[in-house]
Design a protein that fits this description.
This protein has one domain (5-174): P-loop containing nucleotide triphosphate hydrolases (Rossmann fold). 45% of the residues lie in helices and 16% in strands. It has helices spanning 25-36, 49-56, 63-79, 93-103, 116-125, 136-142, 161-174, and strands spanning 5-7, 10-12, 14-18, 40-42, 85-87, 107-113, 152-156. It is globular and about 40 Å long.
Length: 176
Amino acid sequence: MTQAQQTGGHHADHFIVMGVAGAGKSTIAELLAERLGYPLVEGDAHHPQANIEKMSAGIPLDDSDRAPWLEELGALMRRSDGPVVLTCSSLKRKYRDLLRGSSGSDILFVYLHGSRKLLSERMNSRTGHFMPPSLLESQLESLEVPGDDENSLRVDIGPKPEVIVDRIIASLNSRA
């Protein structure tokens, strides 16, 4: 592991773009990774096939479904040669704790949040994703917003993606 990155007031070895389905994690993470010059890791690409089949069938994942996936993502960060930007819903504090513990890293969680209406509109308009709109409610019910004691940054998803990433970068740099 390389020395931790100091980006503004946020110390982090890695960045996880988190939030419920439809928040724009992949879009924002791709732009953020490009701006920071770090590799992008799409967390959904590491789900076991059984998880994808379960979600595709409209069945929410439970903690036992998520644990091996989260451990794999943590191990991936631990093995990386430097910082990465990773997408992962990270809905519950215990999931974020598992990611921190299994990665052995200091992680900045970039929490993307928006109204139920906006999230629903986005999920209903996207195509080709295994997560059906019917699972949004269960994700919102599971969501535990990062606490003040967690290394996190809360970002509204209303603006265009480029504006969101500009705001993330500005927030990171404003605390330098």
